[in-house]
Every structure is written in structure tokens, then in C-alpha cells.
Amino acid sequence: MVSDSPSILTPNDNKPMPISIKEEDDLPNAATTALLPFRTDSSSSDSHPKPATTTVIFISLVISTCIALSAAIAFAFLFFNVSSANSESRNEFSRSLTKLKNPVVLLISSDGFRFGYQFKTDTPNINRLIKNGTEAELGLIPVFPTLTFPNHYSIVTGLYPAYHGIVNNYFVDPENGDFFTMASHEPKWWLGEPLWETVVNHGLKASTYFWPGAEVTKGSWNCPKEYCMFYNSSVPFENRVDSVLKYFDLPSSEIPSFMTLYFEDPDHQGHKVGPDDPLITEAVAGVDKMLGRLISGLEERGVFEDVNIILVGDHGMVGTCDRKLIFLDDLANWIEIPKEWVQSYSPLLAIRPPSGFSPKEVVAKMNEGLKSGNVDNGGYLRVYLKEELPSRLHYSASDRIPPIIGLIEEGFKVEQTRSKRQECGGAHGYDNAFFSMRSIFVAHGPRFARGRKVPSFENVQIYNLVTTILDINGAPNNGSMSFPQSILLPNH
Ligand SMILES: [Zn+2]
């Protein structure tokens, strides 16, 4: 029923009332317009209208009444349909598995898929998932910093970066001076319990076709060869999709309950050209095509309706151009910030002054310079002691986070020294409150209502969503325990 009328439901499902009110407003207006000539005629004519005028008035009255009546009937019909469909989706239960023996979650990441990219071009496959699934209506909110590694690991642990340990794409451990890079696979860096580990702990199988952290052997997860692919960006997307599809050819007990699939696009292009460029449109179409390949493969195997597909991105993208730059060297009149103090510049400015320097004083002097009006674009950078960052960023409770953090306005960049270099491209890593940093959440499968829109939420909620679908107990995390009930269809 619901799937039969998604075009009506799509904009209404989450907020039926405003739509109904709008309809109510529109229809009486239409009726008023129809009645207006009658009233005008009546008021402009004298108290003894001629018979011809009376006939005209009578006919207009009949016509107006008919219009008003049909409008009212149409409205009542629409209202009844919408409200009955809504109450139906609220009372709906999860759909039974037809071929698979156990629930399966396939978590797909399209890196840097900014919310709104889906409107850039024809995306029939993403649209199909949206139309018949559940979508965060205004996108998925990343964690701060809105960078690839911190966010991917938040998605699979339900933890903010301060708690899962991957506080940046690269950082230094202040305890021993060890350097983390995106190629670091030592378990000591990767805190928390990622989904693949939770799943294996419960005696189920997990597979990872790339995901930050998946190659790290940790607890009961030993990155088994046939279920855990070592990251290699040159593997064509088709091969990745086909490999995931092959898991569904295995005997039932061998099919992983939880699978990941990762595409570097459209982040890869976004960095080069920014979010608004034909290259992005092309990349988005390419990702959609891969989803089409996946859907067809699942359909051929008769399992498309059985698999819970969760399509997300890790963050958005914003254009950086027009010399929107702030140079740390420009602060020299207030305080010198040597490059050795700076762990990362942009869009996450992270500074660790050596011992002997008071971070509080450094922050005060930097902000004095930035606010002075004598530093180019100084007003677009605000520097904080990490403990004084807005609490909504959850970015202080880790020694790995340097004591001084700068928040940069959308699209601006911080560099050390002035140079003649000119660049235009894209970046992410900014405050997660920026709409441009949002990504997508589209979920399709037996536990997701069709054509449903839900409000935006932070990606730390996804961990509990997956464990709930798989009916296993998850590790403690920053997601809310009640969140899955607000998104998932209940089981019978
Ligand atoms: Zn990314």
C-alpha cells in the first residue's frame, strides 16, 4: 500500500500536519476566489436585481457550490489517504525474509557524498532505494572533525573520535611521539569495538570490502583473508560489488551477517574540483551505476528484498577558492606559531605548543591578532582551548587531541606562509554544523519502512541501528539506545 503511493507519501510521511494544513489553506482560498465574483456582483448591484442578473447569480452560485463541494471532497479524500497511509506505516511490521535464513546488513560508504549530490543528475538506483526505503530527509550529520577516518570509524563504533581514538586522519600520540597515518594498522590506535568485531563476538560472520580500521586485528576480529580485503584503491568498483555479491552464493551459514562496501568517489573528485563541477556529476552517476549493479546482482539471487542496505557517506564537501586563506605567519606581531607546533592546518587547525608555553596564553594572543582587523581573513578563524570548544563537537576528551583547536569558517583555509600558489578545489573537516558537511543516509530492506523520511541524525547512531537489526548486544557507545526504534520497523 505504502509503496504504491510513494510520490504522495514522500514529502508527507514525516510531517503530515503541515501538508494537511497547507491543503486546507489552499482549498478554501480556491473556493473564496470562486465565490468572490458573486459577492462583488452582489455588492455592486442594487437591491432590486433584474431577472437576468438573478439567473446569472443563481448559476454562479450553483457553479461555485459545485466547485467548493468537489474541492472539499478532493481534500477529504487526500487527507484520508495520507493519514491512513501514515498510520499504516506507523503500524507496519518488518517484512519476513524470503530466501535468507538470517538478517544481513550491507553497509555502503560513498566517500564525500555531500547531501544534495543525489539531485545533480539522474540517480535511478539511489532513487529506487529512497523511494522504497527510509531516508534522512536532510542528510546524515557527520562527527567533528568532518574527516574521512574519524567519521568512518564513528559510523562503525558509535563513538565520537575522542573516544574511538582516531581524532584526525593523521596525528601524534603525545605519550610516545608515535605518528598515526591512514596506513597505521596497529591495534593500539583503534579504540572502541567496531561492528565487525561485535558481530564476530556473537558467533556471526562479518566481511569488509574496505573500511578504515577493518584491517586491524583486534579482539576476536583477525581480518580473515576471504572476508577482509586489504585496502587497494586501484581495485575497480565493479570488482568490489561483484565480490560482495559472491558472498550471497555461499551456503546460508557462511553468508556474512554484516558486510561493508566502500567507494572513494565522489570525494576523490571533490578535493580536486570542489562540489560543483561536471566531474562530480559524473562521479555521482558512477556511484549510482555501481548501486544498480549491486541491486541487479541481489535481484538475480532473489535476495534484494531480504538485505538491509544502508547507504551512507562520511562527510560532505565545500569549495575552497578565491584566496580564502588565513596565514599563521600573519600573527607574528602577536605571537609566533612555528610550523613545528602545528599538527594539522586545514580545515582542522590543531596546535600543540611545546612544554613551557601556556596553551591558554597562545590562544589569547592568537585570538587577539585574529580579531584585530589587521590579519587578512582573521575574522574567519577562531581559536579555542579544546576544553572550551562548543560541547556539541565532543572534541576534547582525548590526549591525542592537541590542546589548541581552531574552527575555520566554511570554505576558508589556514596556511603557514603566504605564497603565490593559487588553488581552487574542495575540502571537508569543518564544523559538523555546516550543512555542506552533511552526507546521505538511505536504508532499504526488511527492517525499513518504504518511502519514509526521518529527521537528520549524527552518524554515531548507526552502530546501534546495525546491532538492533542483527539482534545482538552492542558495546557501549555514544549513540542512543532508543534511536533504532525510531527508525526501524518492529519485528512481529
Ligand atoms: Zn571522506
UniProtKB/TrEMBL annotation:
It comes from the Eukaryota. CDD domains: Enpp. Keywords: Membrane, Transmembrane, Transmembrane helix. The chain crosses the membrane at residues 56-80. Pfam families: Phosphodiest (PF01663). Residues 1-13 have a biased composition (Polar residues). Residues 1-22 are annotated as: Disordered. PANTHER family: BIS(5'-ADENOSYL)-TRIPHOSPHATASE, ECTONUCLEOTIDE PYROPHOSPHATASE/PHOSPHODIESTERASE. This is Uncharacterized protein. It comes from Rehmannia glutinosa (Chinese foxglove).
